[in-house]
Amino acid sequence: MRLALAGVSHHRAPLAVRERVAVDLEAAARLSRSLATSDGPAHEAVVLSTCNRTELYVAGDEGVVDHADRALLDLAGPGATELAPAAYRLADESAALHLFRVAAGLDSMVPGEGEILGQVRDAFEAGSPGPLLGRTFRMALRAGRRARVETAIGESPASIPAAAAALAEQVFEGLVGRSVVLVGAGRMSDLTARNLRSRGAAISVVANRTLEHAERLAVSFDARPVTVDDLAGALGAADIVVSSTSAPGFVLGGEAVTSVLRGRRGRPLLIVDLAVPRDVDPSLGAIDGCFVYDVDALEGVVSATLEGRRTEALHAERIVSEEAARFHAWRASLAVVPAIASLRAHAEEIRAAELARVQGRLPEGDRDVVDTLTAQIVNKLLHLPTVRLKEAAISADGLLYADVVRHLFGLSEEDEA
Amino acid sequence: MAELLVWPTVIAYGEAALVYAGELRGHRRYSTLGIWGVRIGWLAQTMLLVAQARSADGFPWGTRAGALNLLSWLLVTGYLVWGCSPRYRLVGLAVMPVAAALVVLAWVGGGTALSSHGDGWALAIHAALMLAGLASFTVAAAMAALYVFEERRLKRRDVAVLRLRLPSLEALDRLAARATLVGLSLLTAGIAVGLGWLDIGGVDAAMTVAVLIWVVYALALAVRWEAGVRGRRFARLLIAGLALVVVVLPLTHFAA
Hints:
A: Rossmann fold, six-stranded parallel sheet, four-stranded antiparallel sheet, 16 helices
């Protein structure tokens, strides 16, 4: 049985091409079923479709690689001509290695991004896998889990909002119930606020130039609206401030704000300044317990963590290689499994026949003992040949060894069927 | 026998300290070796303490070497409780070099062939409580040192602050305070045992210093609770407190 992969991904296909073959999980499940049950060489299928890739994994008889390729082009419909040059096709162990790298996040736009492992799992559960694809996907999920547990590839934030939230977690022991003050509106501050909220923080105050603007923004966060002029009063109880206004000068600074921050007596306050020009007077960072991060500082943190991810990716590649070697060993062992099964069946047949011949002459109480004893002898005799056959399969001599076993014991390939 | 166990202990603790230092520079590949260094070193040191106790017919706590050895063991034992959690593993960065240095100092200060004072259980309990208290203060100072280090990284907006994650500032501050409270309780109990059951024969320098240390740490906790002194200022108090212990205690307890 062969394994085939046909797909497009962000490496070679722009979004306009990828979206032609993008399918949701339900459609992916339908497509998997149809591929696995249609007349043709395919017996198993799993469709993985995310915003960065659509890949068809198919297992079946000879010709399954072309079958997967055609299925991908059919999925693109009229856009097939644009898709064809960007599409890739892989077979057998190359296809498995690719899936392992995908699951480990090594093929992602941001190395080590955390969502892909869940998406691979969902695709597997929704698909129509059989023995080959089932094993391949389980090993891929294992490779992905190992990459996350044994390396730090997924630990570092890869965006400014995620970096701001991670910095907050370096200051505070958990973000549940932390009070966030949002100053101004902007896409980045909105994303940062939502990131903080997803970790348990509460957006308690929204400040804007006018109260009307503040009220409008506050509704979506269930927060208290204030004007920027009243901001100083809100800082006393805040834990995190996220600021992003288009004001030409400092919104947070001056004597009033400094006095409020000094009054906190070292209680930590993280100020995230996402505005250009800056909203926050950098000298506030000198106050005890006050940490000020502007866009440059946050970008520096993200760049450093991305660099770290690339270093960790090398370790993750090693894990993927180990899993690929295990996959190779498993696939190779399949070649000798019929010979092993046949040899064991042959031995069991002889044992059963000999046992039946002497059974009548044995006392009642000894029959079970002799049965167990002969079974153990057969198992012990066959253990080492079985292990050696599997080892030989990994080193590419498996078929030769299998033929020798068949010849020595008079087994035929028909028996194996 | 005991002599043979000193160097495995030092090497294992030193290896752990080196691995943690390497981790600080971004080399995480060998981080598992760090915690194994701590475990193996702790086992070797435990065997060392048992061997010493057997040869001296009672633990030789009354000497500088014995006391430092026990202090180091208590320190590492305390760390092992936290060290198993990945988030707190790097506390070992502050603890393991100190532990290794204490074992070396113990060896330099008297080797391992020591004899017990044979002053009975009351003194043994007193010494064990005092040493456990000092070990807690050392752990508190280690947390405080990490707090100062981490706060500085955040203040300076170090770009690598998320590549090597230490416990949060709040967690370090809370744990330092908790370790101080535990240490103060042990020290209080140790002093009480000393006053209640030992034949002291008057106030001496050792007793004065023990009470002084108690007062310093009690004041540190009092200003934390009453005056809200937390964070960096509290961390500095704890580091200064341990510096006082390190400088004064050997002079009064082991000068002879």
